[in-house]
Design goal:
This protein has 376 residues and is α/β, with parallel strands linked by helices. The chain contains 13 helices and 13 strands.
């Protein structure tokens, strides 16, 4: 989904996925892809070190791929070295499962950082304390999936496999990170509801947007990110006018907390819901150019993108002990997915794909900008 500043008319350049294509070190690869060429490696890798997770979230959109193994320590450290030797510019440690649960995660971070690869981390925050020194020094950004502003709501939607709530631990970890960080810290809030057989709401976190945003600022987060509720196929779920008004009213209050150190982010998915738009996003192109620039590596295969994680029809191959990343990539068919047919949900990189497709027909030189963010 495209992320924009809530309540402003501009898009921060770090959030402008189409604009990021014109960075000086990024554009040569983009231009090659626009003209149908393959790259020696993607520029960005979403890496799932493990499918294990220490939470038991009922609404987890990755439930179909959870607890189905992980890379061995030797293989994933070797993979980190393979990425370090490639032209990959950024790696996002994500999941799948909780990336910090892999016992080799420290070595992975160090190898990537020492190679000059920028590192992003999407985490539930429970294990940040075990890796605080590396994360504060080496991560370009860390985004913590919270989805609540109080312990009671957190435990409803993000129950722990431990005997007690992990909400206080995560808040503590985030505060420590905020006090020492070099990169950015984000507080992610996914709107969620549960319904009974008659369609009535039984549980919700919609009322807690303001509390969560206020907590994010108090912690020292750089941003609070609001995301819309999705179904298992990544389509937005329509909401009642009352629920939309409830969220919008809280966002209005949160805008009063924005300053130079804290801001709100919203997704195009929420805009779709807020405006009552069709959850289907038509795409008049059959090739996803971004699949050549960015890929998703998991213990159970390499896939064209996170939306298709675990989808065998979108699998590029397997990274076994006898296959290097370079070898897999060289024979991968990144056109295996047809966006017009297979990606009818709202895709975060739709506008970037449209931008790339239009490049060959544009006259004159392209105006490039200095590098600022490789996470295209």
């Amino acid at each position: 989904m495209t992320i924009t500043r809530i309540g402003t008319d501009r898009i921060d350049r770090n959030l402008d996925l189409a604009g990021k294509l014109y960075q000086r070190s990024i554009f040569p690869g983009v231009a090659d892809v626009a003209h149908g060429l393959r790259l020696p490696s993607p520029l960005v890798v979403d890496l799932d070190p493990t499918t294990l997770c220490d939470l038991a979230c009922p609404e987890c959109i990755s439930s179909g791929v959870l607890h189905k193994g992980q890379f061995s320590k030797d293989r994933i450290v070797r993979l980190a070295h393979e990425l370090a030797e490639s032209s990959v510019k950024a790696v996002i440690l994500i999941g799948g499962g909780e990336p910090l649960m892999h016992r080799a995660i420290g070595a992975i971070i160090e190898v990537l950082y020492e190679a000059g690869i920028q590192i992003g981390l999407v985490t539930n925050g429970t294990l940040m304390g075990h890796h605080m020194d590396r994360l504060t020094e080496m991560a370009s950004w860390v985004r913590v999936s919270m989805d609540a502003g109080t312990l009671a709501t957190y435990d409803k939607f993000r129950p722990s496999r431990r005997k007690s709530s992990v909400f206080p631990l995560i808040v503590h970890n985030m505060r420590e990170f905020a006090g020492r960080k070099r990169g950015a810290l984000g507080y992610s809030f996914l709107l969620m509801q549960r319904f009974d057989a008659e369609g009535r709401v039984t549980d919700t976190n919609y009322h807690e947007v303001y509390a969560a945003g206020a907590l994010a600022k108090d912690i020292g987060c750089d941003y609070f990110e609001l995301k819309a509720m999705l179904d298992d196929d990544h389509f937005t779920v329509g909401q009642s006018p009352g629920d939309i008004a409830l969220v919008e009213g809280q966002l209005a209050r949160l805008r009063e907390l924005e300053d130079d150190t804290f801001h709100l982010l919203g997704s195009s998915n929420w805009e779709t819901v807020r405006r009552g738009l069709d959850p289907v996003q038509p795409k008049d192109y059959s090739t996803c150019h971004i699949a050549e620039l960015r890929t998703t590596v998991t213990p159970n295969g390499v896939f064209v993108c996170p939306y298709h994680r675990g989808n065998q029809a979108a699998k590029l191959g397997d990274l076994d002990d006898d296959t290097s990343f370079a070898e897999l990539w060289a024979r991968a068919d990144t056109t295996v997915v047809n966006p017009g047919r297979d990606c009818r949900f709202h895709c975060a990189r739709h506008q970037a794909n449209v931008e790339i497709a239009a490049l060959p027909g544009r006259p004159g030189p392209v105006r490039l900008v200095d590098d600022f963010d490789p996470f295209i």
